[in-house]
Write a structure and sequence with these properties.
With about 130 residues, this protein is mainly α. The chain has helices at about 10-30, 35-55, 65-85, 90-110, 110-125. The chain has one domain (about 35-125). It has five helices and no strands. Keywords: Membrane, Transmembrane, Transmembrane helix.
Length: about 130
C-alpha cells in the first residue's frame, strides 16, 4: 500500500495520523492554543514540502501532479492536527463529530482535482 509518494503500511499511516491528532489535542488544551494552531499548521506544511521533495516526487514536469503529491502528504496531517485542536474542548458528541467529519474529508478529498485546480489558478495564469 502507498500513502503519498512513500510506500508505507496502512498501520503506520494510521499511527502517524493518530499521533498528529493527539498532538493537536495537546495544542488545543495548551495556553497559547491559537499560536500553536498556526505554528502547527505551518510546521506540517513545511514537513509536507520537505517530504515531497526528499521522496523525489512524481516523475513528471506537470505542476498539477506535483501539487497532488504534496496534497497527498500534507492534507491528511493538517486534517488530523486541526481535528485534534478542535476536539480539545467541548462535549464528547462534538469531539466525535469533529473526528468523524475529518475522517470523511480525508476519505473524500479530491487530491488530483485539487492539484489540477491549484495549478490552473496560480501556476498557469488561469
Amino acid at each position: 500500500m502507498s500513502a503519498g509518494p512513500f510506500p508505507v503500511a496502512t498501520a503506520v499511516t494510521g499511527a502517524v495520523l493518530l499521533g498528529v491528532l493527539v498532538v493537536g489535542v495537546l495544542a488545543g488544551r495548551a495556553k497559547g492554543r491559537w499560536t500553536l494552531l498556526g505554528a502547527g499548521v505551518l510546521a506540517i506544511v513545511v514537513v509536507g514540502i520537505v517530504l515531497t521533495a526528499v521522496s523525489g516526487g512524481p516523475d513528471t514536469e506537470d505542476p498539477a501532479v506535483e501539487l497532488a503529491a504534496l496534497y497527498t502528504v500534507t492534507v491528511p496531517l493538517i486534517l488530523a492536527y486541526v481535528a485534534g485542536w478542535l476536539a480539545a474542548h467541548g462535549t464528547w458528541l462534538r469531539r466525535f463529530l469533529v473526528v468523524g467529519v475529518a475522517a470523511l474529508l480525508l476519505a473524500a478529498f479530491p487530491y488530483a482535482a485539487a492539484g489540477q485546480a491549484t495549478a490552473d489558478a496560480f501556476l498557469r495564469g488561469g
